[in-house]
Design a protein that fits this description.
There is one protein chain. The chain has a single domain, classed as Serine Threonine Protein Phosphatase 5, Tetratricopeptide repeat, CATH 1.25.40. The protein has 7 helices and no strands.
Length: about 150
């Protein structure tokens, strides 16, 4: 009995850890998509309100941090391309925040607004995998809706 309770508590703790969107600078940082997929999973099991809370957190975080002045205040051995290519961190932050906003709107089902934000991401970073994949999904939804309408 104690063992099952401990496993349950650990699982509950893990889901609480991944509820706040953060910028992922290093390879082992939490990716923002995890909150989006938590929301989709919650939606699938009928917990719509909990799902929408996750999606709204993505939107709120993106909006409140899009104009942050980003600086790295520490030395990290495992910084990815940021340190190697000396990228503009503020530009990278805007891309990240637009992506979070897009994911949030995509989660709540506002495909037009999410498409607009995904396009902002791909305009600044043409190779952004997540934004490109989600744009393809949105466009396929549109084609499906048009073909069902005909």
């Amino acid at each position: 009995m104690k063992k099952h309770l401990l496993v349950y508590q650990r699982k509950k703790l893990k889901t609480k850890i991944f509820q706040k969107p953060l910028i992922s600078w290093c390879y082992n940082d939490q990716q923002p998509d995890t909150i989006f997929y938590q929301g989709l999973a919650l939606k699938k099991i009928g917990k719509i309100n909990e799902a929408n809370v996750r999606f709204q957190k993505l939107i709120d975080y993106g909006r409140s941090h899009i104009n942050d002045d980003v600086k790295i205040y520490y030395f990290a051995v495992s910084l990815p391309d940021l340190a190697v290519w000396e990228e503009n961190l503020n530009s990278r932050n805007k891309i990240h925040c637009n992506y979070l906003i897009a994911l949030g709107y995509f989660g709540i089902g506002d495909n037009e607004t999410s498409e607009m934000y995904f396009k902002k991401v791909t305009n600044r970073d043409y190779g952004h995998f997540g934004a490109n994949e989600d744009l393809i999904l949105i466009q396929s939804f549109k084609r499906k809706a048009i073909s069902n309408f005909d």
